[in-house]
Amino acid sequence: MVQRTDFEYSTVPAGEPGPGEVLLRVLYLSLDPAMRGWMNESRSYIAPVGLGEVMRAMGLGRVVASNDPMLKPGNLVTGLTGVQDYAVVAAKSLNKVDPQLAPLPRYLSALGGTGLTAYFGLLEVGQPKPGETVVVSGAAGATGSMVGQIAKIQRCRAVGIAGGAAKCKYLTEELGFDAAIDYKSEDVRAALGRHCPDGVNVFFDNVGGEILDIVLAQLARKARVVLCGAISQYNNPADVRGPKNYLSLLINSARMEGFIVFNYAQRYGEGIQALAAWLAEGKIKAREDIVEGLENFPEAFLKLFRGENLGKLVIKVAEE
Ligand code: NAP
Asked: Is residue 316's pLDDT more than 80?
């Protein structure tokens, strides 16, 4: 687990934007479990954050000064801002957002990385078909809550696995999941058997570890296991625990496939359009869990690993 002492807070000049760059006032920061992985010095889909560098983070900011004709002062944008008050960023790496269409933090949740992860991970990798049973772990989180709701739109049965009675109630009573399993107090194996009598057709896994193993043992024939994340393993000081029940893939002619949302970068526009339409029609609900103050970064980040967030965890850095 990260600690406050792993980070240094410093005050330095914000910097001047060079050609094609803009200076942003950061307003909101997205806190993502993946940031923990970026702190490890190992090969991944993206280079690790180096010692002494600004901690990498997605954020939303207002353009203060621009050296690019596409962006003007006052424009609102999302992009990799880092955990800082001001950021100098290449204009072409930023996406403009419209404050009239949605509250700003939503561009970091349902209309941002986690919404897109749910959209492409479920629809492209999971390929759910009407009538199938979709199980999602980390179900009350930013990604998982979208996965279950998109599964319902695809006319699937949605079963969520989450920690605690309140989160489970939120899934079934507010988000329309057919069933929710509290992994902290229920026997997940028995509950899955009850809620998925014909087996699991699609498992969208956000947590890995023991839950992955339990679901693997209950796959239906030709099931698809979508490896989105494995948060139970991110702070594991020992070796990552692999799935013991992987032979279930063999006997069920099933497949397990990992993906990174960046793989779909060329199609983000399509994903955002679909998600925005579903939000507008009331077919999906989004929720942000907002912590105030950049200085609270380390403690706020830990909420993800303690299950203390409900919905997308965001830091509000400055007034809009
Ligand atoms: P989130 O689900 O909003 O927050 C994390 C949640 O994980 C916590 O609220 C907690 O909920 C659960 N959790 C924490 N420790 C756990 C443990 N040991 N066992 C079981 N559950 C645990 O976060 P998110 O941003 O949406 O990310 C969810 C997953 O998606 C992460 O694994 C992340 O790395 C992955 N992800 C992948 C991609 C990609 O491109 N592949 C992109 C974005 C996110 P409970 O209270 O229910 O335990």
From this structure: yes
Point out the ligand 1 atom lying closest to the alpha carbon of residue 230: 32
User: pLDDT tens-digit profile of 275-296?
Assistant: 999 999 999 999 999 999 999 9
**pLDDT tens per residue across span 218-262:** 999 999 999 999 999 999 888 887 899 999 999 999 999 999 999
281-313 residues labelled b (16+ CB within 10 A) or e (exposed):
eeebbbbbbebeebeebbebbbbbbebebbbbb
| Residue minimizing CA distance to atom 2 of ligand 1 | 141
Q: Residue 156: count other Cβ atoms within 10 Å of its Cβ.
A: 22
Could you tell me if 257 and 203 are in contact, meaning their C-beta atoms sit under 8 angstroms apart? no
| pTM for the structure as a whole | 0.97
Ligand 1 atom closest to the CA of 313, numbered from 1: 3
Pocket-testing residue among 182, 304, 306, 313, ligand 1, by greatest number of atoms within 8 A of Cβ = 304
Give the residue, out of 207, 262, 291, 310, with the most ligand 1 atoms within 8 A of its beta carbon, to mutate for a pocket test: 207
* Ligand 1 binding pocket includes 305 (Cβ within 6 Å): yes
